[in-house]
Prior knowledge:
There is one protein chain. By secondary structure, the protein is α+β, with helices and mostly antiparallel strands. The protein folds into two domains: about 30-135, Orthogonal Bundle (Cytochrome Bc1 Complex, Chain D, domain 2), CATH 1.10.760.10; about 150-305, no CATH class. The protein is about 55% helix and about 10% strand. The protein is built from ten helices and four strands; from the N terminus they run H-H-H-H-H-H-H-E-H-E-E-H-H-E. Strand 2 and strand 3 (about 250-255) form a beta hairpin. Helix 2 (about 35-45) crosses helix 6 (about 115-130).
Amino acid sequence: MKINQIIISLAALAIISCGTKQVEEEDMVPKISLQEKEEAVKLLEKNCYSCHAPDNSGPRLAPPMFAVKNHYLDEGTSEKEFVESITAYATNPSEDKSRMPGALNKFGLMPQSNFESDDVRKIAKYLYYGDIKHPNDCGNPDSGSDSTNYLEVGKDAAMQVKSVLGKNLFAAIESSSAEGAVEFCNHKAIELTDSVSVAMNIKVKRVSDKVRNPQNTANAEENLIIQTMKESISSGKKAAPQLIASEDKVTGYYPILTNGMCLQCHGEIIKDIEPLTLGKIGYLYPQDKATGYSENEVRGLFVVEMDVK
């Protein structure tokens, strides 16, 4: 009887030992390979760090990756859940997919980019398993608390242009009705925009996907941002400003939204635009496309180019 008990105990011990050994061996298997790490770091450096600066040595245009990881990774979050959440937002940014409301308020919605979903998944997997350092621990000197808030600087420039144009448009309408506003825009709008740019030492321009003046034609990148903002408005959300950075400059994109005054020249023909005003538009802008708007629609962008400081 005792011999049988000993045999059973030894067998059980052997089974437990084998199970423990298997768990230990599984734990020793790396969850992300060296090659995957290297690929992810290259992708981060190429696509992400110009905005999500990992340290304090450059402009802060978006939250650092340390903060992104902390907001998307809760206790119990699986690799799959983390990777899919990051990928869903990065490949098609929207407010409802973001888990960082503070970053949205400070930096705006991430611009739509042509990221390959497989590349984003590689980056997300690296963030999940990697030791992502806080910016203060990256070994770079702190740039201090006076680092430039480019979103606010650009917004200030855009609002300066909006204010100058708005005051002059209102005066033109008061003196000569909407026809006077069309005349003013034809002769003075770009000139006044340029004067604000010179005064603030920042390049500001207005662009649209439905232009009146061909000089305000949006390029492909600007058109994409306009469409993203239109989609936000149509889904009941705000059209958030956006920033895009390169090595030597930061470009801010701020929506131009229609209001009641705008519709006198940009609204629906007959319903909003008087016949004399429509005739003036046709005479000065034979190829005009900038009509048919309702209130609170995205009519274009203020584009503000700022040097990196």
